[in-house]
Amino acid sequence: MAMSLPAVAVFGMGPLGLLLSVVGSMVGGLLVAWLWLRADRALGEAWNLSAFRNGRRTMLVGFGSALGIVAWFTVGGMLLRALGMPTPDVSILMDGITSSPLMLAAWIVLVAWLAAGLGEELLWRGFLMDRLLRLPGLRGQIWPVIIIQAIIFGLPHIYQGWGGTILTGIIGLYLGWLRTRVGWTLLPLVLAHAGVDTVMMLLGYAQKMGWVAAG
Q1: Within a domain: residue 54?
Q2: Is residue 30 helix, strand or coil?
Q3: What predicted TM-score, i.e. pTM, was given to this entire model?
Q4: Is 115 helix (H, G, I), strand (E, B) or coil?
């Protein structure tokens, strides 16, 4: 969080300030996680980025999961409306992301693929799950760990409203489970996460330009 303050102080809460704030926060979080894992000699295990069986299978699982998650956002949004709950509000970010083609490209590369896709998977499914699984009361307890990390993953998305927090938490549940099914490698999860964010950003830009109807 502290590493995001200089960007906001210099550039304000405009598109560039938000972009650098997101990236700065992730860099700070990953630095702390890296130092902790390195001290415990757990980097290789926690941050395993090897392919799942082979490159083709890795991409199939990763991008297939991305499509499923995008579908879940659509269905989940309809369920929230049916229950009378507010749907996720990402306007504070999307206004900046869609402010120009250059800013869209920067957000896709620096946030969708690096800060969110790679960074959040290293932090949540990598670092957090590793730390939880080493706690005395949770050692070897896979499902409690998956549930706890999903809740913690969802809470920072409270800026989207409770609807967004719930939908994101369920996605965290799926990604935590997925890691246990792909030999504990994070690479398919990175592809899934980055793929979802890329699609959402491109869709938001297309809606702003009037190329597709807003949902």
Answers
A1: yes
A2: helix
A3: 0.93
A4: helix
- Cβ partners under 8 Å of residue 212, min gap 6: 203, 206
What range defines the domain where residue 185 resides? 2-208
Q: Does 20 or 5 have the greater pLDDT score? A: 20
pLDDT higher at 170 or 95:
170
Cα distance between residue 66 and residue 47, in whole Å: 20
In the predicted structure, residue 37 carries a pLDDT above the cut 70: yes
Phi/psi at 188 (nearest 5 deg)? -60, -35
Domains of the chain: total: 1
User: Distance between CA 60 and CA 55 in Å, rounded?
Assistant: 9
In a domain, 144, yes or no: yes
Query: Can you read off the two tokens belonging to residue 102?
Result: 């250059």
Domain annotation covers residue 50? yes
Please give the C-alpha separations between residue 173 and each of 40, 56, 134, in angstroms, as whole numbers. 26, 24, 19
Q: Distance between CA 14 and CA 8 in Å, rounded? A: 8
Residue 213, in any domain of the structure: no
187-208 and 162-181 helices cross at what angle (nearest 10)? Answer: 150
Residue range 144-171, pLDDT digits in tens: 999 999 999 999 999 888 999 999 999 9
Continuous H helices in the chain = 5-11, 15-39, 43-46, 55-82, 91-97, 101-107, 129-133, 142-154, 162-181, 187-208
